[in-house]
Amino acid sequence: MTAVQLGMPSIATGPPVGPAGRPDTPALLDSYGRVATDLRVSVTDRCNLRCTYCMPAEGLDWLAKPELLDTGELVRLIEIAVHKLGITELRFTGGEPLLRKDLEEVLGAAAALRPRPLISLTTNGVGLVRRAEGLAAAGVDRVNVSLDTVRRDRYAELTRRDRLPDVLAGLRAAKAAGLDPVKVNAVLMRGVNEDEAVPLLEFCLDGGYELRFIEQMPLDPQHAWDRAAMVSGPEILAALRTRFTLDPHTAERGAAPAERWLVNGGPATVGVIASVSQPFCAACDRTRLTADGQIRSCLFGTHETDLRGALRAGATDEELAERWRAAMWAKPAGHGINEVGFAQPVRPMSAIGG
Q: Residue 12: which H helix or E strand, with range?
């Protein structure tokens, strides 16, 4: 056995192995020994914001309705993931998932599964104030809300929509509905909002939310991502330490993407997801299902496995599960962002799901 270094912790590996060499296990095992138990489900590629780093002002060419998984198809694939493949956590994403009209029906079906998976939702928060109680009733355990600034003028500039008051009301509604912990996801960009590390954490501490900073990743449709414009994890921590004391969290990180820090001795925490500067691919436990029924083994992968076509052609649950297992067995060792020849995925983040 040798070790391959891909800008991440060393991963033990032998010669490349195809699906035929996969051990006989129902789990979503890959050839590097990782097991996927966390399923990210994109329910739509549509969004009601036009964030400058995510899409152009006019939006994108959305998937046509026949291309999307319908309610029954989506629920069936989630059932297969939980009952046959060992998925224990579901994260519903978009686009903006609250734009999907049957969302609560899908969530309710997922919550009724046994064993019951942990269910979370990532949203921009614009429609959350109207939906928070219904989401909780449907079975959502917690929410992540994307928020890159607490300044109304800057929010309108970044998202091309003046909706910050709605997002703030949505955060309060989510907390009132018991969708705890309410997490806030923030991306800092040089020359745009890099001065908001401290204000964002102060806002979250005051509101009782858990803040997670995420390094900007090369997933924009314009393929204009510039590493020099990315505010790195170490830079974010340095900015926070001008105002707060940060101590490493004592809990084991495991497969969690965020490295957590105790703020001023705790119990409040802040997390940094340094996907680019400090990759955590060696511990990745995620698999992804796009809104049009494609399996992705990696957020930055360039290959997809079609489940929608097989499903609509009459494949059995076990045949669909085997396709899924084969897709995950072929998962690469890492995303390769820091490697020569890295190719950005054709799909942008809004069409993949976070």
A: strand 11-13
